[in-house]
Structures are given as C-alpha cells and as structure tokens.
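Fold it.
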Amino acid sequence: MPLRTIAPCWNIVTPAQPAGAGKLAIVIEPGTSFGDGGHPTTQLCLQAIAALAPRARQGWRMLDFGSGSGILAIAAARLGAQVDAIEIDAAAVAEAERNAQLNGLSDRICYARTLDGVIGPLELVVANILQPVLLEYAVGLTGRLAVAGTLVVSGLVATDVPAISARYAPLLGGRRPEIFELDEWRALLWRRT
C-alpha cells in the first residue's frame, strides 16, 4: 500500500513506512477489511472527522458504525476522542484491534459487534456503510446523537441520497443534510446546533 495523504491532515501508512512530516499518521496493516484510505468514502469521512473534531478538549465521544479496518476510529482517537467502533465481522474487529495497537490507541477505542452497548450522547456519529444498512439503523444512529452532535453517513452514490435524506431528516428535526462529493461518492452531514 502506498503512502496516502488525505487533506487536510492525514498520512495513511503501513507499519514499515515513515509517517511523513506535517501530518497526523494513521498506521494501517494491509488486510481484508474495508478502509485503507484509498476509497473516496473513507476520504470524505476522514475529512469530516478532521473538520468536526472538538479541538478544545480530550475525551469527546464518537461512534464509528461499520468500522472495518478501524481507520476512522483511529483518526478520531488521534484527535482526542473516546470511540465506540461497531463492526459485525469478527475478522475485521481483530484486524481493527491490531491497527489500534499499532497506533498506540487501544485504550481510546472500544470495539463491539452490535450497537446494544453504545450509550449516548455522542458528539459525532460516523457511518460509512451501504445504503440498506444506513436505512435499517437510522433510529439507532440518530438516537445516540448528542443534542448538539453531528451525524455523517457515507458509502453512498447520488441515487442513494434521496432515500437516505427522507429517512434521516424526520429523525433530525426535519433538517436537510449538507452533501459532500468525491468522484461518484457522497457523504451526508447533519449538524444539530
């Protein structure tokens, strides 16, 4: 895997690569799980985390739903978050736990296979997963969001946006999402303010 630089602040590297200067490094052991920084939806979510992370304090809380390799959880933990990372695939959870150890952030990330143990309120909820799963878990994701929290959903193409917007908007006070694009992929963002 080549070094990946993702604006504004990330360098995604393997354990054998140098971190690079002037960026925050995320070490990812190449494996079978989704999330090595190459996919546009991962990049959109990394950019959102960098922009939305509360800089003024440590210990803010984030949910990474559909965690895969753990790259988004690691990014948030690098910026001071305590992260609940949910992933149904046991092999992916093991891979994500190894990646958290490589980054020295195991104590900031709690991995689980269901949402059941995640108790809000959470300042940031990020779900980078396919449309059917986002539709199914809309109530569970929005229900854990803090009153002034932010929700980011991705893993979407343009034709997915209307259904996701229609499902989530009523759960978020009727708000319309901000839509971010990279190639054919989309990320939707709702801010509760």
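Helices lie at 40-52, 71-78, 90-102, 131-136, 138-142, 161-168.
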